[in-house]
Amino acid sequence: MTAVLAARGLGKRYGRRWALQDCTLDIPAGHVVGLVGPNGAGKSTLLHVAVGLLAPSAGSIEVLGRPPAADAAQLSRVGFVAQDAPVYSRLTVADHLRFGARLNPTWDPALARRRTEDLDLDPRQHAGSLSGGQRAQLALTLAIAKRPEFLVLDEPVASLDPLARRQFLQSLMEIVAEQGVSVLLSSHLVADLERVCDYLVVLVASHVQVAEEVDTLLGAHRRLTGPRRDPASLPGDIEVVEESHTERQSTLLVRTDGPVLDPAWTVEEVGLEDVVLAYMGRAVAPARGRRARLGVAP
Amino acid sequence: MIPVAWRQFRSQAAVATAALVAVAVALAVTGPHLVDVYRAGLAACRAQGTTGSNCSNPVAGADRGLQVAVLAVVLVAPALVGMFWGAPLVARELESGTYRLAWTQSVTRRRWMLGKLGVVALGAMAGAGLLSLMATWWSSPVVTAAQNRFSPGQFGLLDLVPVGYAAFAFSLGAATGVLFRRTLPAMAVTLAGFVAARLAVTYWLRPHFMAPVREVLPLQDAGIGLVVGPGGPTVVGQAPPLPNAWVVSTTVQDAAGRAPTAADLRHACPDLPGIGTAGPPAGPGVGHVSAAVPVPGGLKAPLQQCVATLGARFHDVALYQPADRYWPFQWFETLTFVAAAVLLAGAAVWWVRHRMR
To answer: By C-alpha distance, which of B347, B348, B353, B356 is closest to B89?
Structure first.
């Protein structure tokens, strides 16, 4: 599979501050990719660079094999739903569909009409008076009716209530099933991504901690609980992602390709959220470790 | 892009159209009265045998408040266009976040900007043109009677130039909106910038569009003004009778370009009070006598004597823009502002394409 997005040492600087620095990432085609990370990790910046709203200050990025927003043809291949789903509040729903039709040669009017009907959007209603959920659905309609090969969504459900959130993700799943479009969506909530994504990228401070299929990720990680012992004594093919110790007991979150055979450990499967949190925690761990050592110094 | 730009501009265009219609109705209702006053004044002048600039037509003072209001509307309209159409054009998209929607459609930023700028600029120029056309028609009796078409209050508010001002103000607004990324500061800077540009062109640039014509007149034809100040008497050149011309300067000088000195004046005009030694000063310090205006009977002969003596050596030198340069000046100023508008628009497009990423 070719990459829908390939970034090499990508960086974006605002004045002296780097919003994204030295980010290297490959996203294969044909997936619904979740991009997760703490606030300030550079998720939004990365997505804005990918759709051509921002230009890189360093490194390179290719989307569908070409620089983002290189020309009108490249713009037509990528759909984007920005955070908070911006729409023109003084234009009606019908105006927005005309807007999309005029500005996108690949526009699919039947698809746009069907979606607004299914969603019960009144064409005469002004976008400013739509609910948050309806506005997000309208923005998604605009992004998908241009028939993109790659759909990018920046925190699409962050500001929606739980019901609207579920409906939006439901719509997204239907679109993916119908159109076979590659999707990249960001969120800081793993639970949202778990529902729709089959591929996960964990970004912490511009650096990719994890980038692989969700099934592989879940299959390779286990939680081990047993009598306290040094994680260094584990076999070499077991990688400790997260560890916590009490006086008598050790709890480890490990990555391993084979089964854990040591009977001293109780082996459990782990959820996606735990895996993601473990990798996020590890990315900031060195600093914490130093602080701990300073704390016990005489 | 053009239909989209038009759809986004439509409500603003509707407001402007309504305002233009209101102005049109007001001018259509009040215009005929001015024409009547002008015709009556002209008939009265003819009856007295005065014509041209000697005819003081009462139309100049008729409906004074209305005249000021009409000129004020034409004066302010370009600034409003810059502030309310130009400044928000891109800044509003940046503030509301809709640029993220607009710039991820299958249209390059260049086309998006050119479409928006083009549609609204044409609307602004058409609106300003219509407004100027109406104001020019309405005030034509006043302009004809005043015979001073180059005066800043008429030249800059009638005929073609308002179209150039509107284009410039709009582009200035759009460019500052792009630069500041926020509508309100962009509006303030647009207003200040437009006022500064108008003043600079009116008082610094416009006089230099073309080299003025130099005309040397005998003092007997032009007349002189005499001012008696604390430093002694001085002479002031009188503007030659050139209807609708723009007299830049008039000076009294000899062949070598020197103005008459106080001694020259005392020598030439010994019988004028305050200048010669014959009489007491005309007033507490400053007196003014001129051959062009009626003078008391007793002074007429000494004044004519004075002008004749001075005229043997000195001449009236007038620098002026002839009346037939009115349209070249209109075109020159309009195209200057349109050129500045194009440059500003180009800068705004460049900035959005290259610096706003």
So the answer is: B348
